[in-house]
Specification:
By secondary structure, this protein is of the alpha+beta class. It has helices spanning about 10-20, 40-60, 85-90, 95, 170-175, 175-180, 230-245, 295-305, 355-365, 405-420, 430-440, 450-455, 475-485; strands at about 20-25, 35, 75, 100-105, 110-115, 140-145, 150, 160-165, 190-200, 215-225, 255, 270-275, 285-295, 305-310, 315, 335, 340-345, 345-355, 365-375, 380-385, 395-400, 425, 445-450, 460-465, 470-475. The strands form 8 sheets. The chain has a 7-stranded mixed beta sheet with strand order 3-9-10-18-13-12-11. It has a 5-stranded mixed beta sheet with strand order 22-21-23-24-25, sandwiched between helices. A 3-stranded antiparallel beta sheet has the order 5-4-6. Strand 24 (about 460-465) and strand 25 form a beta hairpin. The relative contact order is 0.11. The structure holds glycyl-adenosine-5'-phosphate.
């Protein structure tokens, strides 16, 4: 490994060069805050999502309490819609409260998040901050709701207004009763969802970190009030372990418990899992995932109406006629616990992560530069993405050493065999060194080469991306060796 400094410029350039991430609508000049994932990027994201889903849902065993869990529990998945009844966002508080403060510059018409002015560039003079140029004229901070508005149906009037969801979480809350009454699951139970969310961020920035369209991996865990603190600790620590298992190292990853003044008004505890993204100054970390103890806020809001804090209590916000300002559904979302013969409104623990932020952290962590000898033993600099094999877009690349002597045919056979199980790649173009380096930059953990010896003894070379070490293995053993190294 080298001591090369990973910069955002290098990450952005690699993502473009290798087809991980492109600016959306780039040929028309691009649209800020929107990103397209190219052939390698889409595989990386799919692998992240599949790993999360396996860890959360399909790999979960409800008959066995995982290590450190307070008890056994159930876990199911859900896919809810992006557009929901606008009453959902009114009762949840997003309609009134999901805003950032912004300032406009009357001169250049630039718009900045009030808390980002100190780190933003003046569009007229990028060496200065907004407000520092003699011609800048900034307005007072104002509120800006981050939800994208749309219309449902043919009429464009206020009764048809709808919003693109700013989080997937509300889908789980409003389906709590549906899931419980149809799935034979019991509290404690988690409902997991992966899906797109949209936020009209005032200043999207730092590559994909703050996007306007992004994917979330959220799980709402419903439990009894008495056990909720234990479950909060459990999920907080388990989520950190998941990131570590994908290769994020502890010195770049940290868990930060929020102080009481930093938490949302409904939160009984929040911790951020943070990563030292390279766009941040040394020693600073950015949010990768938030884990929150949300109490009974969500289910109560959807029963009674939008809640506000009144001292230690959460109470329904009322209008001038004493009616709920934003009524809930009026449906009973409480739970009767057969085991304890008690009825309660479940408390919720929510680990909420971003697919794009995980992909970005994994790319930053994996980026490395070193020098390896070429065919003549001369050191050649290379860029290598040391991605964990489970998330690597392509698991193995298969090459014939030369394009003759039956080697392409044999290599294609090996390729087809492995393709039944994994996303693998066949390449016969260019020198073998160049082919290796292309795969190193793409994060492919294994390269398999068919050479003259293959025709004699049915063996191939298996090259490890990180060490560049090559071992000779039998074609018949390839699948099991690769499976073992990928870990599944
Ligand atoms: N339901 C709770 C919730 O949405 P959040 O902290 O606002 O909580 C959860 O979002 C995760 O979603 C964040 O930790 C981050 O990974 C991702 N995320 C949020 N806003 C984002 C944005 N503008 N661009 C990319 N990812 C974002």
């Amino acid at each position: 490994m080298s001591n090369a400094v990973t910069t955002m410029e290098k990450i952005v350039a690699l993502c473009k060069r290798r087809g991980f991430i492109f600016q959306s609508s780039e040929i028309y000049g691009g649209v800020r805050g929107f990103w397209d994932y190219g052939p390698l990027g889409v595989e990386l994201k799919r692998n992240i999502k599949e790993t999360w889903w396996r860890d959360m849902v399909t790999g979960h065993d409800p008959t066995l309490a995982p290590p450190d869990a307070p008890s056994t529990f159930d876990m199911v998945g859900l896919e809810s819609t992006i557009i929901m009844d606008p009453k959902v966002w009114k009762a949840s508080g997003h309609y009134d409260l999901f805003y950032d403060m912004f300032v406009d510059c009357k001169t250049c018409k630039g718009r900045f998040r009030a808390d980002h002015v100190a780190t933003s560039e003046c569009p007229r003079k990028p060496s200065k901050r907004p407000g520092e140029h003699t011609e800048c004229e900034l307005t007072e901070p104002r509120e800006f709701n981050l939800m994208f508005k749309s219309y449902v149906g043919a009429l464009i009037d206020p009764t048809a207004e709808a919003y693109l969801r700013p989080e997937t979480a509300q889908g789980m809350f409003v389906n709590f009763k549906n899931v419980l009454s149809t799935s034979r699951v019991k509290v404690p139970v988690g409902i997991a969802q992966i899906g797109k969310s949209f936020r009209n961020e005032i200043t999207p920035r730092n590559f994909t970190f703050r996007s306007r369209e992004f994917e979330q991996m959220e799980m709402e865990f419903f439990c009894s009030p008495e056990t909720s603190q234990e479950w909060y600790t459990y999920w907080r620590d388990r989520r950190v372990e998941w990131y570590v298992s994908l290769g994020l190292k502890s010195d770049n990853l940290r868990l930060r418990e929020h102080g009481p003044n930093e938490r949302a008004h409904y939160s009984c505890g929040t911790a951020d899992i943070e990563y030292a993204y390279p766009f941040l100054p040394d020693g600073e970390f950015g949010e990768l995932e938030g884990v929150s103890h949300r109490g009974d806020f969500d289910l109560r809001s959807h029963m009674e109406g939008k809640l506000i804090r009144d001292g230690d209590d959460l109470v329904v916000e009322r209008d001038e006629h004493g009616q709920p300002k934003h009524p809930g559904s009026g449906k009973d979302l409480s739970y009767f616990d057969d085991a304890t013969q008690t009825k309660y409104i479940p408390h919720v623990i929510e680990p909420a992560g971003g697919v794009g932020r995980t992909a970005l952290a994994l790319l930053c962590e994996a980026y490395d530069e070193d020098a390896i000898p070429d065919e003549k033993g001369k050191p050649q600099e290379r860029v290598v993405l040391r991605l964990h094999p489970r998330v690597a877009p392509v698991k193995a690349a298969i090459f014939p050493l030369v394009k003759k002597d039956g080697q392409p045919e044999l290599a294609a056979e090996v390729y087809r065999g492995l393709k039944k199980r994994w996303h693998v790649f066949y390449d016969e173009k260019g020198s073998i060194g160049k082919r290796y380096r292309r795969q190193d930059e793409s994060g492919t953990p294994f390269c398999i080469t068919v050479d003259h010896q293959t025709t004699e003894d049915e063996t191939v070379t298996l090259r490890d991306r990180d060490t560049t070490e090559q071992t000779r293995v039998k074609i018949a053993d390839l699948e099991s060796i690769v499976a073992e190294r990928i870990g599944g």
